[in-house]
Design goal:
One of its GO terms (biological process) is regulation of DNA-templated transcription. The protein has 16 helices and 14 strands. It is of the alpha/beta class. A five-stranded parallel beta sheet has the order 2-1-3-6-7, sandwiched between helices. It has a four-stranded mixed beta sheet with strand order 10-9-8-14. The relative contact order is 0.07.
Length: 378
């Protein structure tokens, strides 16, 4: 394994070199105190691993790592720092391999052992070459599926890295400004610290996605980032494209509607309570609600009343405050002379609205119910 060392502290640099020379399989390809010289060396020489000081004169070590990865995206980087308080704070939030000065041999060995040079259980390169699509499930629990097999969960060492990846996945194909990401994740930090943390998280995301490089491309510019997907099927995108195309509900298309609505098994990114996901969650729920009403109304117009009742009941279960669904059921029950069911449905709606909003049902519903009740009590 060819290794490069960068540290402005010559004593620390020599000490780390001595430690590494005792480890079989490690070849010191160069040691530097000048960041510019490291860039040149990485361009011209094959290098596997860089030990990089986080505190360098005139340059932030984490930002330098980001720049280096633009040259060699497969390069592995281990951060070295003499500031324990900084390391603990930064790396607890955005965990990467790091070493505290003075470097201890046992800690160094643990770091090297954590660098995984093996492939995943699935031969991702082979599957990518066979043009196998990667499937991503965002409705319900987040999953990735390849060759009809569920892949192991992505290993995030911090919640910040996981959240940023999922946010970028939600904004896939769109340019996201760095300032937007900082406001999203670190609004309380001063700018230099926030940018440093952002570069750290981006670095970790790149490393986590390395094994899926055929499917994910995270590119950056001076101002921001774009996460592009290649040969990836995202369930929520497939579902929304069908819904927004708005084919009429007919005998020919109802099967497609049923199949697509089954994709919406649960809420968008159900297991995460990110505030930015909630607005998307609600938007998708409204699309589901609108489509469910269209299907229920078509069932009624096609004289498939039992299926309409099933759909309205499903709406009431998923969206208890959807008054129109309760009202539709009340009218169906009334038409079938099921007075008990009418009363039960109305009382259920009243109880739900009182509990949620301390309000009564809309006037048109209470008026209809009062008229119906008066007519059937006479």
């Amino acid at each position: 394994m060819k290794v490069i060392l960068l540290d402005d502290d010559r004593i620390a640099l020599d000490y780390l070199e001595q430690q590494l020379q005792q480890i079989p399989g490690i070849e010191i390809a160069g040691k530097f105190t000048d960041p510019a010289a490291v860039r040149k060396e990485i361009i011209n020489q094959p290098v596997d691993l860089v030990f990089l000081d986080t505190q360098l004169p005139d340059v932030d070590g984490i930002q330098l790592a980001e720049e280096i990865l633009q040259i060699k995206p497969d390069l592995k980087i281990v951060f070295v720092t003499g500031y324990e308080a900084y390391a603990v704070k930064a790396f607890e939030l955005n965990a990467l391999d790091y070493l505290l000065k003075p470097v201890k041999s046992e800690r160094l060995m643990n770091t090297l052992q954590r660098i995984d040079w093996s492939q995943t259980a699935f031969d991702l390169d082979r599957l990518a070459q066979q043009n196998q699509s990667l499937q991503i499930k965002m409705l319900g629990h987040f999953q990735m599926i390849l060759d009809e097999k569920q892949l192991p969960p992505l290993r995030w060492r911090t919640t910040r890295a996981q959240e940023l990846f999922l946010y970028m996945l939600q904004c896939r194909g769109q340019f996201i400004r760095k300032s937007t990401l900082i406001e999203l994740l670190w609004p309380e930090y001063e700018p230099n610290r926030a940018f440093s943390l952002l570069y750290t998280v981006i670095y970790h995301i790149r490393k986590t996605l390395e094994q899926y490089e055929e499917y994910f491309s995270l590119t950056n510019s001076v101002d921001g980032y774009i996460l592009n997907l290649n040969n990836v099927l995202v369930d929520v995108e497939e579902w929304e494209n069908f819904i927004l195309s708005s084919p009429p509900v007919t005998n020919k298309t109802i099967g497609e509607y049923i199949g697509m609505m089954k994709l919406f098994k649960d809420d968008y990114l159900k297991e995460y309570d990110y505030w930015w996901a909630e607005s998307e969650r609600q938007r998708l729920k409204m699309l589901w609600l609108r489509t469910s009403f269209r299907m229920a109304e078509w069932y009624m117009s096609s004289h498939q009343q039992s299926k309409a009742v099933e759909k309205y009941l499903e709406i009431c279960h998923q969206h208890p405050i959807a008054e129109e669904a309760h009202f539709a059921l009340m009218k169906i029950f009334a038409a079938n002379k099921n007075s008990l069911a009418v009363h039960r449905q109305y009382r259920l709606l009243v109880a739900i609205l009182l509990e949620e909003f301390n309000e009564q049902p809309s006037t048109y519903i209470t008026d209809w119910y009062d008229d119906w009740k008066q007519e059937h009590e006479e």
